[in-house]
# Entry
Amino acid sequence: MSYDLIVAGGMVITARKSARRDVCVRGGRIARVGKTTKRSRAWAKRVVDASGCLVFPGAVDSHVHLALSIGPGMRTADDFDTGTQAAAAGGVTTIIDYTTPKPGQRPLSAFRDRRKEADWQVHTDYSLHNVLIGWDPSWREDLKSLVKQGTPSVKLFTIYADRGWQADDGMMYQVMETCRDLGIVVCVHAENDSLIKLHTSRTLKLPRDRRPNALGLALARPPLVEAEAAARTILLAESTGARLHLVHLSTRRAAELVGKARRMGLPVSGETCPQYLALSQKLLDQEDGNLWGCCPPLRGSDDRDGLGKAVKQGFLSAVTTDHCTFTRKQKNTWGGDFLKIPYGLPGLETSLAVTYTLGPARGNIPVNHWVKIHTEGPARLFGLYPQKGVLQRGSDADIVVWDPQASRSIRAEDLQTKCDWNPYAGMQLSGIARHVFLRGIEVAKDSRFIGPGGEGRFVPRLASKAPKGRNT
Ligand SMILES: [Zn+2]
# Structure
């Protein structure tokens, strides 16, 4: 039987090794990775010449916010349609977004609502994390059902008490116990709400001439805010035996705490984002610094270097984007008040190029490790492996053909995202996704979305095996 597609002559990069191989696809799956004969190439429906290129699995971005409303007139520029086009253009073929429950809404109902929003317009495969706003023990049944439907992860916030979103320590403990029993990963946005309030009020009390602009965001959330909450959350996870994943880590200390927990054998993992590895908080301290407002805020060089090291040492298992796009106009509604900046940065379309530039292109991390943190790492964390995150027989044929020699200067107008500015504008980034395939269908070429449209699917994920409970 002939193949539908052969990606031939490229350097296939896995988490462990690199080898010149041909990747053969049939029926949307990888049929074979190896050497092909002239004859089988002649019989294949399509052969893509990948010589000089790196070939690796489509990236999995497990932290994305599309079609998110945070208030009147504040809906993200990217919805599931444009956001997944941007993702595909950048080499990301699976995203995990979040449910958006209204106060008091049960998790199962929030999940159904979100699927109705996303299912018909996604161009990459996708899944959802279940956001928990409040907790009622009867919701355990909802979570059980959600595991069966393939979304074995929840998300809690240690902040946003004023919006009613905060999971206090008691709630977190109960949720962790339940999730431990059901094999659910508990994702936590860890920052200390009370310390943020203290530092915010101190920042606002500064005399007018010393009152900072958008940099106030960073002053109100010093690194301790994240490190303290990470430490507390890790202790709760250790005590309950729950599987914990700390999202968008921005500080060296929090990343080190994750590394320490992992060395102790605790089921704890963490991620960081390209913006925390590449961008400096100095960007906030300029006239349009409000554009760079995100939460947690951008940091100084100590944290950036520390995070880079944590990625290199394997303390952090994934790089995700926290893609959350607000236009220049939306960002400019802040009126000089750093508390009113709509937080978030675009990232889906540039994440691979940013981290490739910082990492393998400069010899900072091996290319295999770079591939791992964007593919196998997040796929394993969230129950997508080996369907996603690996090029092996039987896996989905999500394939990126990456030209490491190409480079481009980032301009917002060249990108697919509907965000009309870009935090990396003007930067020279190495590497371009020449071809991106989703289950064997070409969805992007030369970093442009070309897919026929609507080829994305909801992908059920597998629950993790429940670790042994400790309850100490
Ligand atoms: Zn987020």
Summary: The chain has a mean pLDDT of 96.
